[in-house]
């Protein structure tokens, strides 16, 4: 809105509408990320920054939040997944789906029991289940190979029929 090809970007004075819960210091933090020296998104700021950036259509700040979330391992997975859905955070979605945690059946089972899981879209749930299914298939394939190696010896060159 302020930086894109909008009518407001050409005006000298703009009246902004604000979300109900807007706090002065949060809006200032958004401006500090937008304008030089471009402060970084942090664990203390990503939550309100992505919300405000989405509200004001400041795509580069949404992308900064996306990149931060994708690379931060301290933020709970369920929180990331909720944000992925709400703000269409592609990089975070890919990082979550490729994470080691989602390859563990117990972790995914626990994730589905969290109240926030109900907030996740059906589309994202399908992606999570497909990811889990692919991981399970990969695990089964590895286990079959290990079993064959144990049954027929470790050198598969001696047993070409296995290939």
From TrEMBL:
Q: Cross-referenced Pfam families, in alphabetical order?
A: BTB (PF00651)
The residues covered by the BTB domain are: 8-72
Classification via InterPro entries: BTB/POZ_dom (IPR000210), SKP1/BTB/POZ_sf (IPR011333)
Protein name as catalogued: BTB domain-containing protein
Organism encoding this protein: Acrobeloides nanus
